[in-house]
Structure to design on (1420 residues):
């Protein structure tokens, strides 16, 4: 891969070209043409006032081009933050990630729902129907389960993904499932519409590079003890391989408090929004660890500006093979969707309750 | 004080009497009469289905009374949680704390606003007018400031409280200010409508007992490393002295994350609501430490079910003598109140923007 | 008090005068004479290479004196850290705190031992004899107990201190006990040789100022979520009132780990030694919360450079009214002292096992 | 692999057979013979009082054998902890891991030293000579570096391992280096004597299973926010694949304190010793993040009972390409080894300073 090779040789450089506010389409096109001819990566961000062109490439090539003298160019700004492609400097306006027509980070809120683990055909189909009925756009479900103990249920693996695909065919929901290694990326790629990287793998850089080589969107969860800065740097591992379709997911951090499984860092929503252009959704189920707190945390997340939610919901939570305490019933999930649709209007977002 | 003396002798007992669901006013009155005659503390909670009578008193007295045989009594339930008066078992329905007509914990949301420290007559009057204009019910302002360094500004002390009183007379706002010791409780008592106990004093038990001896309402902040369980136990120190007018305030806990001053534990709102009957408000200013995050966190708090907010607002934040980075301007505060009033409606609460 | 008044008016200034390395006694005396005549506080630190004179006082007075022109003066250095008197800049060489002949911070290691709470005459006498027999220099014991729940045993109060005094008379041990408020400082002052400020009161600034007004040595525990920087600033509250006899005590911080009650921050020992001149001892009992871990943690603390230990030991831990799980038996404590005396030699310290 | 297959099918069962204390070699052999004939895994632990036989295998096979009736058998005890092979119940006496003749967990302390990253032939050879000279048994050095930012130096990869091998041939030191994925395990396997799993991969279960399929010893670091319980469960992932040669390494956990990079959880040493039979060493370099604190933390670790240390040492720390602030100079490392050899004697361990 282009970027990855240059990274290894330590020659990669990322900067932005700020265009003059009166520069026109012609100047932008000319700068772009020159950059592309040199084999450099180009990203154009058209703001309300001026256009910014992000440039990625070989330091030695960039050095030889007198870009600052080209018509319409105001100045060149190198990116000094350790994360570059994920930052607001490189791309000032928010990114909208398109997953087969469902847009994450736009006006519409996105809800992903489904059981912690795919357990059986009946279970996943029932969950999918309930998710669809209330308005969710994605079906979630774990097929490769990273569990604290090797003796705990580890998931149905490829069989689970096939069942999800069946649910997708019936309901039209997009599907998302966790990948945990090169091998599981390869298998999941055949079934899922979006990869999920779980909290435990937030700094499994080999895995991040792997999904970075794909163009398939990635839902990238924060680790329970990852700072926001480290998380954005980890996202950069995916993006620096060429996959810009990254959606962040806050899912609670580890603190001394024991009343909840983790502590939902609600502030991460506005903090990420100010540092990065990537969309961010919230997983209240893992943060709380108890189903009774999922509804208030979901409302809080949306009110704080999150672009969506990922919710654990199970046709029969008491019988769940994993995370039984935190999964909603279909009824509870339906109420949640109804409430979210009401809040959405107030904050100038949208969510179609009932699909 | 009655309870305190019994506590020392280790004889205090707290239990609830669950009345039969068909028991009437007559039976309740009779049980109450007997308990009061014996010098026991009585708290009646009338629920939609049945009435619960909380009883506090000397273990030896209680042992001698065959309460379970009285007409209308279904059963006696001892309270085994380490906090008793603060818990839901003792009082199943939510408490509403009345501060001179402003009710905290009811349908109406309560907003307290004002500068970190009272700095001058002009500053506090200006802040009060802005608070009033946008709809706040309380003026906050620090007169006795506990600061990390002894060389930092320590507050105007009694002079500051007098200035707050002047602001109160002009605007009609209620006033709240922090107390830090027996001496400051005594002084503040002359001026404030509600005491505030700050995060650093959450386990200053001597101070808690002191405000417990008063009947003046207390805003009781969580410490940055206090578990919710410890916090409710600390509230019990106030309540066991006889002051039941306690409002809890979540203000962020200490974690490894450095992007914010503290991590707002938004989950504390539903957790406290499920464990305790006490109202809970949120302080997003200290949690975030940066004014730009105060608005999204405020919305999140209200959406999660908080009964109100306490917001740092300064006529000129850049010149503030303390916590400059986290105080809102009057304009920002006004926008916040407007947004809160919109969310309030959706969640069946009320807030009169513009007062 | 002198400093406290100046602090309030915001005029306090702390700086050091670095003397030339060939300056003699005469020059030092002359500088000192001038400073004292002006009513300024003076602290002389004679190092192996040069002498440093710490100066505290009214900014306006200091401004008028051309100190840099006096013979033997090399330069004036203002102290910019937020803690001044507690820092290494003000006093480069380590402080040794003398408690009635027992020196804390010198070559000899100091061990304080005794029960969590004073419970009875027999219990405290037995504990004192065991402590003395193994070589401890101090008897510890709680008389005013700050407990998480108001319903837990709160200590024997003054009666407990009287029993400790009796134990002191019999064994010759010095006594140390916790104070929690102005009132308890007043009472304890009559009995104890050293005040203890507990973790919960680390930022109870009123209490810190109170013990700062005394000259009695203070053992000052870190709070479970206090950074080292905040802790040294809190120590400054005591010192800025004039009491320089402060000994720090690391007792574990609050983290997500639940295998121990708190996490002993062993690094705090070398960190404090590099930032401050104050002695530091370690409390492994509260950090671990389980008696089986006290011995290895004690050895670690001494090996890391701590100046001593404070250990919970009870004649009969199983029957203890508080902290039963973490108190050593007299036999376990005796083994600990034996092991510490061996390690002491290796690291050029001393501890007389067996007294 | 045997165990792994059974795990997937959920049939794996682990228990211990406690032999009567007067049972002899003959009874033990007979029980063992029966178990092995049935294809079950057997681990014999001969204690001073009685022998314990650990048994792993297919639940259905085990159910059919009346083991409790065999001569010499006292009772069968199922293992209920979530980690089984890593726990003390399964194997009461401490494990000693033999790495080509160097024993970790025995009387002798083991020191691993070397630079954070292998940077050049000269650098690694110089580091190796210094490590050897002071008595270290292992050379450490990063070839595959997982770095927070993708733009930071990522290591020399296989080239680095070849340089380490050259250093090994010259000095006779064993070599250890981090692996981060299936591919790097495969490459490193050709060069290293011991795999290292870094903190970021503590719950990269795929990687753990991968090194579990080898018989090569593994140094397994704790994650910065992993509880000890989770860490032992993660070790179980390696062991349940058949590789019992696991050495644990405490390297600091993430807390709110910022004076050090992480907070060394020194209590983890005695806690792990009480819960598990696996050896544990300490990495003070990553915990402290500053070279000045490495010596006191190293002494503390050994005094607390650690079986060894892993120390970052660089011929010229100021020029290091990674972790410059925390690497010792060869002289500082030499002093550390000298001090450790002195402490070793006191606590009945051994370390040959100077090799």
């Amino acid at each position: 891969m282009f970027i990855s090779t240059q990274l290894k040789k330590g020659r990669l450089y990322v900067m932005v070209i700020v265009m003059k506010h009166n520069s026109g389409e012609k100047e932008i096109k000319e700068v772009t043409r020159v950059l592309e001819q040199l084999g450099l990566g180009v990203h154009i961000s058209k703001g309300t006032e001026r256009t910014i062109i992000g440039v990625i490439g070989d330091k030695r090539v960039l050095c030889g081009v007198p870009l600052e003298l080209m018509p319409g160019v105001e100045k060149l700004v190198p990116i000094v933050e350790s994360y570059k492609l994920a930052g607001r400097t490189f791309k000032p306006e928010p990114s909208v990630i398109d997953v087969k027509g469902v847009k994450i980070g736009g006006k519409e809120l996105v809800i992903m729902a489904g059981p912690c683990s795919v357990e059986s055909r009946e279970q996943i189909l029932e969950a999918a129907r309930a998710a669809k009925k209330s308005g969710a756009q994605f079906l979630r479900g774990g097929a490769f389960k990273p569990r604290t103990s090797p003796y705990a249920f580890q998931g149905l693996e490829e069989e689970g993904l096939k069942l999800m695909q069946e649910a997708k065919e019936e309901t039209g929901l997009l599907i998302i499932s966790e990948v945990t290694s090169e091998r599981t990326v390869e298998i999941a790629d055949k079934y899922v519409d979006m990869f999920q990287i779980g909290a435990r793998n937030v700094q499994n850089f080999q895995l991040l590079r792997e999904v970075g080589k794909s163009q398939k969107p990635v839902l990238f969860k924060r680790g329970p003890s990852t700072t926001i800065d480290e998380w954005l740097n980890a996202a950069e591992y995916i993006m620096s391989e060429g996959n810009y379709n990254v959606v962040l997911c806050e899912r609670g951090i580890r603190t001394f408090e024991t009343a909840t499984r983790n502590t939902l860092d609600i502030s991460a929503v506005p903090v990420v929004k100010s540092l990065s252009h990537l969309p961010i959704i919230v997983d209240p189920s893992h943060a709380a660890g108890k189903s009774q707190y999922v509804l208030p945390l979901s409302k809080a997340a949306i009110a704080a500006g999150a672009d969506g939610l990922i919710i654990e919901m199970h046709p029969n939570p008491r019988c769940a093979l994993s995370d039984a305490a935190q999964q909603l019933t279909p009824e509870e999930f339906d109420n949640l969707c109804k409430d979210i649709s009401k809040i959405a209007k107030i904050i100038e977002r949208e969510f179609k309750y009932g699909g």
About this structure: The longest strand of chain C covers residues 12-19. The mean pLDDT of chain C is 92.
